[in-house]
Amino acid sequence: MRYVILTGASSGIGLAAAKNLLQQGFHVLAVSRHKNTDLIKYADKQSGKIDYIEFDLSKTAEIENFMEQVFGKIVLAEADGIHLINNAGVLEPVKMMEDVEPSEYEKSLSVNLVAPMALISQFLKQTGEQNIDKRIINISSGAGDHPYAGWAAYCTSKAGLDMVTRVVKAEQSNAKYPAQIVSFAPGVVATSMQKLIRSKSKSEFPHVDRFKAFHRNQQLLDPDIVGKKIAELLEQKIFPDGQKIDIRD
Ligand SMILES: NC(=O)c1ccc[n+]([C@@H]2O[C@H](COP(=O)([O-])OP(=O)(O)OC[C@H]3O[C@@H](n4cnc5c(N)ncnc54)[C@H](OP(=O)(O)O)[C@@H]3O)[C@@H](O)[C@H]2O)c1
């Protein structure tokens, strides 16, 4: 059995990835604050399996216990592969830095950066002695490389996540049974996050017109295309270990 721990499975890119993984026969350990019951029904008709675990990733102090619960659902002796997809993410706060409260930075960085780091820590701890295929995909963004006014927390969290990818690669090079890792930038995708971007004022997000134009000109990617690409990354023989890849490459 091939297991995938997938955060943010309830909507958008995560939901599309979950569906594609279920079609490919993976056992998906789906995580988000709200259980997507339609996804559970969808899983019934696929070759894969699903366990849905509701959890708020901003509660970073609880992640160690949470991951023990997740690994309780994995039969290690039957696992051919165990993978982790850090997909859950938040865009807010979207406004100039002089208007952002410290608690807003904390919330964003907890979900977008501290939680993925803590999940990776537990994943590596739990799978360290397993001589099986182990892949981590960090869902990043072009915003990790390019500064956007109004997105201080989001850009910083994605830049941080990209560095985590590189550090894990450096650490795992010396591991007994190394896990592989990539940062994956999915492009501009038609999800609720893009709706939120378009709802912002120019004073909060000066680039808003560019994103409205992407939408008007139908340049947004279908989440299913991105979900397929994510599932492929777990299947392809050559995995771009330690790199940041972009769906547009
Ligand atoms: N859409 C784009 O154009 C785009 C571009 C570049 C990168 N990305 C990245 O792609 C990833 C997915 O984004 P999306 O566009 O699919 O957004 P989305 O539709 O808003 O989905 C976000 C997912 O994250 C989960 N989530 C949010 N806060 C959480 C929390 N505190 N605890 C647990 N789960 C939480 C949500 O589930 P619940 O609300 O049920 O908790 C939801 O499943 C994000 O990392 C985003 O930064 C998106």
How would you describe this protein?
The protein is α/β, with parallel strands linked by helices. The protein has one domain (2-187, 222-246): NAD(P)-binding Rossmann-like Domain (Rossmann fold, 3-Layer(aba) Sandwich). It is built from eight helices and seven strands, in the order E-H-E-H-E-H-E-H-E-H-E-H-H-H-E. The protein has a seven-stranded parallel sheet, with helices on both faces. Helix 2 links the parallel strand 2 (27-32) and strand 3 (49-54). The relative contact order is 0.16. The model has no long low-confidence stretch (mean pLDDT 98). It binds NADP nicotinamide-adenine-dinucleotide phosphate. NADP nicotinamide-adenine-dinucleotide phosphate (NAP) binds at residues 7-8, 10-14, 32-34, 56-58, 87-90, 111, 139, 141, 186, 188-189, 191-194.
